[in-house]
Specification:
The complex is a heterotrimer of chains A (301), B (373) and C (329). By secondary structure, chain A is mainly alpha-helical. Helix content of chain A is 75%, strand content 4%. Chain A has helices at 2-32, 39-57, 59-63, 65-92, 100-122, 148-170, 172-182, 184-189, 194-220, 227-242, 247-267, 273-287, and strands at residues 127-128, 138-141, 144-147, 222-223. In chain B, α5 (143-156) packs across α6. The longest helix of chain B has 20 residues, at 38-57. Chain B has 373 residues and is α/β, with parallel strands linked by helices. Chain B is globular. The longest helix of chain C is centred in the middle third of the chain and has 27 residues, at 202-228. The relative contact order of chain C is 0.16. Helices cover 73% and strands 2% of the residues of chain C. Chain C has 329 residues and is mostly helical. The chains are: A mainly alpha (301), B alpha/beta (373), C mainly alpha (329). Chain B binds chain C through residues 1, 3-5, 7-8, 10-12, 14-16, 18, 33-34, 38, 71-72, 75-78, 81-82, 85-86, 88-89, 101-102, 105-106, 109, 113-114, 125, 127, 168-170, 172-174, 195, and chain C through 4, 7-8, 11-12, 15, 22-27, 29-30, 33, 126-127, 135-138, 140, 153-155, 228-232, 234-235, 261, 264-265, 268, 271-272, 274, 277-278, 280-281, 299.
Chain lengths: 301, 373, 329
Amino acid sequence: MEQFFQQLTNGLAVGGIYALIALGYTMVYGVLKLINFAHGDLFTYGGYLGLTLLTSFLLQDRLGVLAGVGILTVMVMGLVGIMGVVLERAAYRPLREAPRLSAVVSALGASIFLQNALMLIYGARVQTYPEDILPQTAVSILGLQIPLIRILVVLASLVMMTALYLFVQKTKIGTAVRAAAIDQGAARLMGIDVNRVVSLVFLIGPALGGSAGLLVGLYYGQVNFTMGWVYGMKAFTAAILGGIGNIPGAMVGGLLLGVIEALGAAYLSIAWKDAIAFCVLILILIVRPTGLLGERVAEKV
Amino acid sequence: MRKLIGLALALCFLASGSARAADTIKIGLLAPMTGSWASEGQEMKKNVELLAKEQNDKGGVNGKKLEVVVEDDGGDPRTASLAAQRLSTKGVVAVIGTYGSAVTEATQNILDEAGIVQVANGSTAVRLTEKGLKYFFRTCPRDDEQGKVGAAAVQKMGAKRIALLHDSSAYSKGLADEINTILKAKKANVVFFDALTPKEQDYSAILTKLKAAKPDAVFFTGYYPEAGLLLKQKKQMGWNVPFIGGDAINNPDLVKIAGKEAAAGFEFLSPPVPADLDTHEAKAYLADYQKTYGGAPASIYGVLAGDGFRVVVKAIQETKSTKADDIRGYLVNKLKDFPGYTGKISFNQKGDRVGELYRVYKVDKAGNFVMQK
Amino acid sequence: MSRKLLAGYAVVAVLMALAPRFLDAYWLDVLNSVGLYSLLALSLNLILGDAGLFNMGHAAFYAVGAYTAAILSTRVQLPILYAVPLAGLVAALFAAVVARPVIHLRGDYLLIVTIGMGEIVRIALVNDVFGLTGGANGIFGIARPVLFGHKIKRPEEFFYLIWAFVAATVFLFHRLEQSRFGRALNYLREDPVAAEGSGVNTVRYKLMAFVLGAAWAGMAGSIYAAKMTIISPESFSFWESVVLFLIVILGGSGSIPGVLLGAALVVGLPEIFRGFATARMLVFGLVMMVMMVVRRQGLLPLRRVRFKPSDVARAEAERAAAARVEVSP
């Protein structure tokens, strides 16, 4: 029984990270109907930029852990968000009227470009974060030893997801985003500047992804330039699982996928872990293609 | 259509332009300069190029300068076979490389049929030298030797219940299989045998599962990034069972990734690292490497490539010839206990490196790798 | 087939036939690679270009064919040339089973599912499923093809084998384009709802496209296995599927000469630019992004209207005759 709960908490922590990345995918897909393959690489940039900023400014020494990490997170989110906006302007906006396939190809190209640029800048080796930024203690809950960091990761993910959800549901701009996701043409007629909405989506989505990258760097202590591909695929699976275009869906999908993976690894086989995740994806698409929480994307007949 | 003709013409031009300079001796380096093993390839290049420069500063070989021709094998068999083809048309007298058994295997037939001596540095699968290829050598040991030493080391720890963990790659699973076979023959209790997925970050699921199997020791045969993460996460879980690793773990970044506390006490197998060789030449080489590149060699496989280069150069020097048969004859029959930077080198008839290469290393509290007797 | 196209093919055929005289082993091997990728891309073109199905897991069919041939060759000692059609058959069966449940999915979803399937196949290969695939080591010791007693092992020899196959494939696929099957695929790509309404059984035709494409990829895989004599899961990664996808799109989706050109460029250019190895991939990505903005229909796109000149003339004559009938009292 102990193993079950340990694996469950493992899964939630990993799932939280998947969820953060999945939010970016789902928002972009909702508004543009585009699978942004480059999103996973923006996540990776978050991890690397975090490392550079951390080692250049040493904020945690100057301001203490909480403030230091907090400011670092804001900086990383800002930088990666800007990268997202630039990416959209350069690679996707010219293809707004084009068939969807062109945008997919462009996204793939952007992903390859970004990944290799990162490799050229930072080198091919794995990069490590400085030790012991976050406290390494374990907390005892219900008799289980759970690392404090793991709980922090889950909490951080939940906080950011809730913030996003409230933003989209309660604010005027958030409503504009939802409107554009349902019908771009009608939204434009209502006076919504769709271009600005799209830029905003590309600011927030990648910012969240970047923060996930930083989280991964702090939690696991290392980043490598190919991690965008693995995490990206899983996060996209999570988004589809929850219902693409649906923000709570991405959260649920991410957490659920993390748990399914962890339990699958524990009780079935570790070597087939990724295959299990993909099987889940395919099953969902066959049985319930709109995902668990239903997609918020208008269907064209 | 014009484009097609243009392309064909361009190809013809490029193909005809493979001029050969008669006053240099070309030695090829087949290495992963791109792809997942790019870091190893770059190390191989650094070592070999430095050695070529050192030799040229001493006047070259047989009166001619050495030239290193690097081709990227991309870490995958298809690109590697094209790279090998390309090297074979460039007039190289020998090829050093490469890293990765499957990748090397794709190039063996091509180089052998072209009559070019190949000295691999990072391909430990046993079958590579079991095919009777005349011109194939390797400076790295084989998985079965490492398997023997590994099984002995794990039993020396006094472990009664042993867990084996690999990462499904050819090298890692091969080594795990070897150890498993030996342990089973000795009637030891192997309680766990499974693989993790490399390039992931989160191994808490696997560690939890491992812990539930209650082993006394865990042998991980994968690579250093994953090993570092395993050590770190194992410590976070508060689990203290000793881990031991294979030679792909030998990399200074291991301690960086795991953290000094988590890495202390970890043991692994490896050919002796250059820092542990006390010969005059090894120290001089390390100093030169430090001066040129601003750091010590980061990977043992790069240095193994360097040793491969050096034995080839020695063969050319001693036989005063660049013919493959002469080089081969020298390496098999005449080369005895050559003072390589990774230890003494001799080759047997199959092209394997002779001698017990593996030592057990332990990581101390300061994060240094200390060789155990 | 237009006259210009035929002339183009003739020129290429002549150049290819003469190539072994002028090119060394390395460049011939590059052309061999181009040939294999052409076969694979043509097979994907049936699925992606003609039927309009987003398939980014094509490497799975390639792998199934290659491994079938490898297993048959190493375990049953079946001569490779007999294994080629068998490999195609197994790949086709695999496609039929795997594609049936997902064939009705919408474009982007199908894309993701095919990616997932490709990965599942790769993971199964690495994990030595059924004990047959050799795990990460792959399978080695595959026999070389023997044609009329002559063992084919040098690049020049493979060159003729591969390019003869390519020529046959190009010819066949052009005929297929003009056939009822090809027209049905075109129809359901352009407007699936109308096609279904006109009585075209879209599900059946889509499946047929998948099955045929998979069969061809499987056969190409078996030739690849024979050439390399070792195969391992690394050669069938997601990246391979992406490359094939790109060749079809960049060359001109649905266009056979476009796909051939695409294969030549995508495989040939990195070899020509070997000196700039590390920047290679960077440029690749950049080219993809730029191409979509600048020339998204591909390098040699399909020409939409494909009436034979004789049909056009006949239609004109009929219209003229009808007009004359109306005018006269």
